[in-house]
Structure prediction request, 572 residues.
Amino acid sequence: MARHLVTSAIPYINGIKHLGNLVGSQLPADLFARFQRARGNEVLFLCATDEHGTPAELAAAKAGKPVDEYCAEMWAVQDEIAKGFRLSFDHFGRSSSEQNRKLTQHFAGRLAEQGLLEEVTEKQVYSVADGRFLPDRYIEGTCPNCGFESARGDQCDNCTKQLDPVDLIDAHSTISGSTDLEMRETKHLYLRQSQMKDQLNDWIDTKKDWPILTTSIAKKWLNDGDGLQDRGITRDLSWGVPVKNGEADWPGMEGKVFYVWFDAPIEYIACANEWTDANGLSDADWQRWWRTDKGADDVRYTQFMGKDNVPFHTLSFPVTILGSGEPWKLVDYIKGFNYLNYDGGQFSTSRGRGVFMDQALSILPSDYWRWWLLSHAPESSDSEFTWENFQASVNKDLADVLGNFVSRVTKFCRSKFGETVPTGGAWGAAEEALIAELTTRIRAYETHMDAMEVRKSASELRAIWAAGNEYLQAAAPWTTFKTDPEQAAAQIRMALNLIRLYAVLSSPFIPDASAALMSAMQSEDDTWPDDVNAALTALPVGHAFTVPEVTFRKITDDERAEWQERFAGTRD
Ligand SMILES: [Zn+2]
Prediction:
């Protein structure tokens, strides 16, 4: 039995994500985790919310809530939606957890011990009235370039000029409106990433199976220009993990927190600890996934993320892990995704353009979305969601090919033989040919799923469904029945067994429909079909079943038009 540690990029806490976010990490990670579990492998699948940083503070202020309360509420919302999409996380954690606080402080202590942290004194804007340093986003003023009155400390949204807070005319705090701002000296810790350059380079060179795109992005950041830059890991904020050296105070760092980019990936590890704590397990139970000196040597660790996250996961997080000098598990494979566009443009969170996860579930069950998103995953290039394509794909693949097969077979059997697997007849050349084709296709499906080739997997699964349809069409038991009822019984016996087989094979893509089909077939045998011939006799003669409700319904033209209109922009 293989052991798979699977993580999805952790979504930021402020707001509900759209379908492009879903297909860029969480959903394909879930597909992979479900497939590995179905094969009988041991899987730990983790995700969490990324809760620290200025955007969370700003969103909480806008909502008129304390930031911790805001984060707790938004975590619950995201958790509920994840459950709605059947994302099968073993734990959905929070980067603001106690476990992550301890671990982040631990890593900082280790990095300091290894000489990889440097104290740097710099000048920052301090608001006397607010009694705090102001991050760039908390400072507004008039743009010196175009005169726009609400330019931010780091950039003018009107003319897009990059700014420094001191450039702004009449700069003021967005918290209090006070213009009593001054430059004050403050001390920060910098992670000396440049010191780790050779070690990172050597490590990346061992990744012979990574896509060229992934390694070339990493190498570019590592070597271009002045090479990998040192980076600040602390901030003058109150919301975050307090800066400590392990468990000890850090003189000169009082009142500061770690920068969100530093503590967020450590949550991948802390989340496993949250999982054991939530389930009454021991520390050894999470460490056997994360410490190579405590049993994680045989773990294969796969990370799923959008392509914009690749540099971070190939460089910055590995610096933390390698730099600690401790035997933590490093990633084995990174599966990166391009972007999903929406109907001729981009998804836009700020303009409410496109379908958001909660809205998607309010109009159709999760399997419809899962199937479309995965079968159109933006792997080798960006892909685009259009309502026409969504309607066509659901109506053809799910309703016509799979749903209709189930409906025809079960209803025909009920009317001619009753609701049990019929006896009589024997399989011949047609059935042998079908079993041979399915065997070839199922082995290909496994290969694609193991390689995380999401689109190829979907296309193979669709071909497996189609093979059953073609068999049924050619065998035509409704015609055979008139002259040779025994032969028709043998054909229907095959077709009923195909339904159970499809339920097992399809469960990583469409888990609810698969469960409904298993239940209709009154079977709990979900073992993977290593032997296809044996799998097609799992439902013996006399085995009872029920005719299921409609497995997938069609999307009408009216619905398509209405949804297209509704999701065009400006969400309430
Ligand atoms: Zn401007």
The radius of gyration is 28 Å.
